[in-house]
Amino acid sequence: MTRAVTESSREKTAERLLRSSAGKFYDPEIDIDWDAPLVEGKLYLREERSSLYGTELWERLTPEQRIELGKHEIASIATNGIWFEVLLMRMLLKQVYDADPTTRFAQYALTEIADECRHSTMFARFSERVGCPHYGPVVWRKRLGKLLNVIAYGPAMYGSILVAEEILDRLQREQMNDPEIQPLVRMVNRIHVLEEARHVTFAREEVVRGMRRLRGPEKVYQQWVLAVVSHEITRSLVNPAVYASVGIRPRDGYVAAMNNPHWQETIRFYGERIMGFLGEAGLVGGPGMRWWRRSFLLGDR
User: Model-level pTM greater than 0.85?
Assistant: First the structure.
């Protein structure tokens, strides 16, 4: 495929996504009733998706504590989502910096950045509204994340975006129409799912285009970077500090979660669709396999 044809295809996709973005988007400040009361007894996270579900620690919790833990876990996921999206925006801005701003590609990248700004504000307000602290990633992982803008580019960059976005997407799709989940959680999930569908389309096509040009050591490097980043994404979803909300020592909760077959299967479920795509694209393999297995995204394979 010639470069001209590739650029034409990229521009057509960007043009279509720009039209979609103009036709349907949400403003969380307006479209969410932040003053609506939370519903007593409703879940914030499906119980079987808790990191401790099925463990001895879980069995010790009262029904009220299980709801409380789910609230803090979903707040951790949301505030880690802010971290993911800030990193995503930095990487997209790097693309825009070197692009022709008159292209639809650059204009859609800027539109996606605007979407992510609103999503980050939404996640922050959500965490505040349900009474949880800003968890985000642990300190050392947050510092390490600053390197991503330097080491990730091309297919690994867009692959990293996809892993973060599609893991959140599968979690949110499962919850957004569940009547047992808090209405506020369902609305936040619904907004994010609708707008992320465009972002996923954009990133998937960029992965496919980029992989067509890769050979030899460069392909191996891209595989390794994506595997390491994906490992850090899955390990950061639940900050160990959440366990203190129900009287569990953070280190004990984290160790139990990482060794919990139910949590490992939940991670595999969240990543099932994106792993199939990345495997077909050729980004799963090489020296990154150790990191993929440790991420729980490959299950027992």
Answer: yes
